[in-house]
Amino acid sequence: MTLKKSRPNSDWITSEESCTLLKLSRPTFDKRRKEFHLKEYPRQGRLWFSRKQLADRILLQTPKSISSQVNLTEASCSRVSQIKRKGNVYDLRSLHSIDPFGIICFLCTIISEKDKFSVII
Q1: 8 A C-beta contact, residue 58 and residue 32
Q2: Which pTM was predicted?
Q3: Gap between the terminal Cα atoms of the chain
Q4: Pair 50, 12: CB distance under 8 Å
Q5: Residue 14 β-bridge partners
Q6: Do the beta carbons of residue 29 and residue 15 sit within 8 Å?
Q7: What does the pLDDT look like over 5-57, one tens digit per residue?
Q8: Alpha helices of 1-121 — where are they, by DSSP H?
Q9: Could you tell me the CA-to-CA distances from 63 to 39, 86, 93, 108 in Å, in that order?
């Protein structure tokens, strides 16, 4: 009789899946999981991590410094890339000001994304 290795919890992912999700190499992921104090669950000879915790602590991390806020105005449409974080995550918390033209630039940018994206408000 063989034991089937199954996912202990539907929210848990392996370290390999975590690296793929975060688009990180294994050494970089190991560094980040120590830096962000990710809880690991050893099961079935593998390390498992909470997908929600990965998203909360690494993917959706707050901007490094609040002082470097972005003004997204008519004269600075190219600054949309400055509010983009790891992956396809746009962090609107780092906006200092935005005008109607800036909103149009932002909307055009996210509409043109080929993959799924997230917006943090």
Answers
A1: yes
A2: 0.46
A3: 51
A4: yes
A5: 48
A6: yes
A7: 677 777 889 889 888 888 889 998 888 888 888 888 888 888 898 888 887 77
A8: 15-22, 26-35, 51-54, 100-111
A9: 22, 11, 8, 23
